[in-house]
Specification:
Shape: elongated
Number of helices: 8
Number of strands: 6
Strand order of the largest sheet: 2-3-5-6
Largest sheet: 4 strands, antiparallel
Radius of gyration: 38 Å
Helix content: 55-70%
Length: 404
């Protein structure tokens, strides 16, 4: 069983006992933004970055050590020391900046996810409207050929026609029925995808909105999608912050500590102690990154990451502009085609259908000529619906590319 058939069967079973609630495109957006699992994952990533923002202040572990033995004389003494390594404030500041930029990036990534989700929902919604329009046309074809089949059957009984006319009418009617069943299965798949994206727990369908009057928001001076470019700009900020953080690792570190130890016998004060006496001292040191070739390699590598981020930004700007120009060109071509159908094509289809019915009724054309004219009229209407679907997709793409 292929994947598409499995989806259809699953959704068909899932729909049993449930009604489909019509929903507008805007309401579908709102519900999906509140319930979509990808969006929820994006919000969780923001929460994660928010929680770890203070991890920049993580310090090296406190080092506690002890010793016992004949350290100062023949007597057994003991000592304990506590040491802590500290970094300069500039080091911690650079680490903090990296985490802050990554948190900002998570927020921008969520905005891009929402933008992509809205685009995907709009495309599926358009497909649902398209299937509805195609179903209307197929219903019209079924009605025409069902009526023609009845008439041909009566003429056959009256001896006014032959079996071929009846068989032809039945064949065209059956084809329309088969296409309708296939169309409904495709619509079920689209409906499943639509509800998967909304993820509301309910089953929604399109609200039969106007399929033929989608508006384009055209931008003559298109410079790119601001949401996508903001995220890429933020990626540049992250790479800059990481470079500074790597550089700050070359700063010296400091070590401070305390030491306490016993001393028995003649001590430094030339006194003879019968018991155990404890002496204290402080320790301070500096860690100098003398052997730093490995760290310098990381710095040079991070500079390349900066260049990659900048190149990705410039490449995306060019790709977005190119995609917008290409899509707009395709939109203009389809718009011209739609204008033809609206001004001439549909009127021609109506005239052909009317004339075919009239001539067939008056017996001036045979069944082959009649079916040819009817199919020609239906084909014009079918191509109009197909072209409108493609035009709507281009409008959705263009509006999405411009979306802010």
């Amino acid at each position: 069983m292929n994947k598409k058939l499995l989806i259809i069967l699953t959704f068909s079973v899932f729909k049993i006992g449930f009604s489909q609630t019509p929903i507008s495109l805007e309401t579908a957006y709102e519900k999906a933004l509140n319930n979509n699992l990808n969006v929820k994952s994006g919000q969780l990533r923001i929460n994660y970055q928010d929680k770890i923002k203070n991890s920049y202040a993580v310090m090296d572990p406190l080092n506690i050590s002890g010793e016992i033995g004949q350290m100062n004389s023949a007597y057994v003494d003991n000592g304990i020391s506590v040491n802590q390594t500290l970094r300069l404030p500039a080091f911690y500041k650079s680490q903090k900046q990296v985490l802050l930029e990554e948190w900002k990036n998570a927020a921008l990534a969520l905005d891009v996810q929402k933008w992509q989700l809205k685009r995907e929902i709009a495309l599926i919604y358009n497909s649902l409207n398209y299937y509805d329009e195609k179903q209307k046309l197929l219903k019209k074809a079924q009605d025409i050929y069902s009526e023609y089949y009845k008439k041909s059957e009566l003429r056959l009984k009256a001896g006014e026609s032959n079996i071929l006319e009846k068989t032809t009418a039945e064949n065209y009617r059956s084809q329309a029925e088969i296409q309708t069943q296939s169309l409904l299965k495709d619509r079920d798949v689209a409906l499943y995808q639509f509800n998967y994206l909304i993820n509301d727990g309910e089953i929604y369908t399109n609200q039969k909105e106007d399929f033929y009057n989608m508006n384009l928001i055209f931008d003559e001076n298109y410079a790119g999608n601001s949401l996508v470019l903001k995220q890429l700009e933020q990626q540049k900020n992250i790479e800059n912050a990481r470079l500074e953080a790597e550089k700050k690792k070359l700063l010296p570190s400091f070590n401070v500590g305390l030491k306490s130890m016993t001393m028995r016998g003649n001590g430094a004060d030339d006194k003879n102690y019968d018991g155990m006496h404890r002496f204290q001292s402080g320790v301070i040191g500096v860690g100098l990154p003398i052997f730093n070739s490995a760290q310098k390699s990381l710095i040079e590598g991070q500079k390349i990451n900066q260049q990659i981020a900048e190149n990705n930004y410039q490449l995306t700007v060019r790709n977005l502009k190119n995609q917008y120009a290409k899509t707009y060109g395709e939109y203009q071509k389809l718009k011209s085609e739609i204008e033809y159908y609206k001004t001439k094509g549909l009127k021609n289809a109506e005239t052909i259908m009317f004339t075919a019915n009239l001539l067939q009724k008056e017996g001036e054309i045979n069944y082959l000529e009649y079916t040819m004219l009817v199919n020609q009229s239906l084909d014009i209407q079918n191509k109009y619906i197909d072209a409108q679907k493609l035009l709507n997709e281009k409008i959705i793409e263009l509006n999405s590319l411009k979306s802010e």
